[in-house]
What we know:
Two copies of one chain form a homodimer. By secondary structure, chain A is of the alpha+beta class. Chain A has five helices and three strands; from the N terminus they run H-H-E-H-H-E-E-H. Chain A starts with 20 loop residues before the first helix and ends in a 7-residue tail after the last helix. Chains A and B meet through helix 1, helix 2 and helix 5 of A and helix 1, helix 2 and helix 5 of B.
Amino acid sequence: MAAVETPIACCAPLAAPLLDEQEAAATAELFKALADPARVLIVNALATKAGPVCACEFEPTLALSQPTISHHLKKLTDAGLLEREQRGKWAYFSLKRDAVEKLAAVADLKGVCC
Amino acid sequence: MAAVETPIACCAPLAAPLLDEQEAAATAELFKALADPARVLIVNALATKAGPVCACEFEPTLALSQPTISHHLKKLTDAGLLEREQRGKWAYFSLKRDAVEKLAAVADLKGVCC
């Protein structure tokens, strides 16, 4: 099976000299993964926790069904933003350090504009 | 006419202690504005230019029709990321400094996670 290429691996900063179409698409994919209030809340929750968080822990905060939460967690994982670890019945999630650094770099336009 | 409220005015960093639903929605709106390759390319082009850029200048680079380009410029302006200035027939666009700083702050999770 071919490895799934994640947008995070190739997306380029908005301020990079001149993005080509492929880089722009990858960067847009990364923003798309975060273009949903539930996914923003999940990333926010993970950013404020020290360790991996069980998929089961998001239900009370998000007021969404478990399948919907799993869908959002999958989108964030596919975008390369989360690390997923299976522990028995449940999966545990944490933010990926390199993804976090990439996201900050992608969104940083300070010093190049205005 | 009531002022249009822009997401940029109220969106919160992903790493903020605990976002409420309204803040998460505003933050997601900001990412949504950038969740499109053409809009990433527009912001990229503006980031690499010193002054305002005419809406007419994007057509060769983006290979899109002028109405489509205007649509993307409107989305970015509505999200609070661009400044729009009418000069005769054409509108000129530049990145908004406070929006750029907000975007960088919103996406910055370094130091709080992993």
